[in-house]
Write a structure and sequence with these properties.
The protein is α/β, with parallel strands linked by helices. It has 2 domains: 237 residues, 3-Layer(aba) Sandwich (Rossmann fold), CATH 3.40.50.300; 185 residues, Spore Coat Polysaccharide Biosynthesis Protein SpsA, Chain A (Alpha-Beta Complex). Helix content is 26%, strand content 24%. It contains 12 helices and 25 strands. It has a 10-stranded mixed sheet with strand order 5-4-6-2-9-1-11-13-14-15, with helices on both faces. A hairpin with a 4-residue loop joins strand 14 and strand 15. Helix 4 packs across helix 5. The longest helix is centred in the middle third of the chain and has 18 residues. The protein is elongated, with a radius of gyration of 25 Å. The two termini are 45 Å apart. The mean pLDDT is 94.
Amino acid sequence: MSYRNFNIDKKDIVAITGAGGKTSLIFFLAKKLAQFGKVLITTTTKMYKPSSENYETLKIGDKNYLGEEKNISIIAKSEINGKITSLTYEEIEKLKDNFDYILIEADGAKEKLLKFWNDTEPCIPNFVTKVIGVINCEIFNQDFNENNIHRFNLVPETLLDSINKKIDADFLSRYILSADYFKNTPSYAEKFIFFNGIDGEKQLDKLNNSLKTINKILKEKDFPNIILGSIKNSEFYPYQKVDAVVMASGFSKRMGFNKLKLEYNNISLLENCLKKLSSIPFNEVLVCGREEWVKSLSEKYSFKYLNNLNAHLGQSESIKLGVKNSSGKGITFFTADQPLLSEKTILTLYYNFLKTNLITIPIVNNNRFSPVFFPDEKKAEFLKLEGDSGGKPIIKSTPLINLISFSSEKEFSDIDTEEDYNNIKKGY
């Protein structure tokens, strides 16, 4: 459930900062938490006066209003131009014993998608237990200018080179690393970054850019609590590092020569696969091989090459080698002989794996295909494989799996024979 992703328990006091969904997140969480106790919503800045379906009681100064939502109270100092204003920190603290949960809007952004902070922002009391910094993924590919950014006049020197350019993962990672979402947060409070708005027609693009952003951030700084999702779609799921393993140490016995050298789109099948994976934001791509040309291609794409000295013992040796060298909390395997497999399909599987953390399998008309995504808990089972066995016995012994339907088998076609290869080249 959403509140569980943010580790919210009774007596937590949660401050929400950032831009692009703070108020929506507060009311979403409040309605969930109201099933378990009394919730107080308030602000240390200003927030729009809520409508009656969002509260049971609304107290603004000496005025009281009744609403429709049970167990949710909103308390503010006054109302000015349709906005309610903040209580003092001391007044909020005195209310702690009266409520099971307190949610505080602790930042303002003038309804813009990003913001910079002045010396007094964000307004985080020293007794909060959790702080959630909100990022709206609608900001990707928007212009970095004053139309989209609150307090644009406070752009730091490190980001001046991006003015009037499109916002991408490189910019957003630099922005987040320098951002003040958690300024003045007490040392004991848990901190979360929430990438909101992974939804709509550009859902996969937003996921792709979000994951690229996160991977860049994590190379510079440890952010243990990163949540992705969509308030609109009621989806919240923790970021997990996912590794891809390319199994390129087979002998292609049915072909009589190494099929991964076959040409497709003017490059080898293996390079087609590596090129495709270079655009997918995996934590790491590991290439298991046994030949120098495979190593060279891996280095060309800055992937980690693993020399498979036991390739003659079967496919399981590539799998085990990849698993042993994987640091991710999820793992998927590619055979490099599916040249029609699209980036969109890989991202669709990636997205559904992150949402569920279950074995995630593509299917067409009840027929199962690869690649398959596996959670961290399955790694130990992979290390027990022998010979040419792959993930099928692990899937078979798992009671709950995630089947993702696709409309056509064509892109999952693999190449085992020269006839397969010729058919794919001809577009059959």
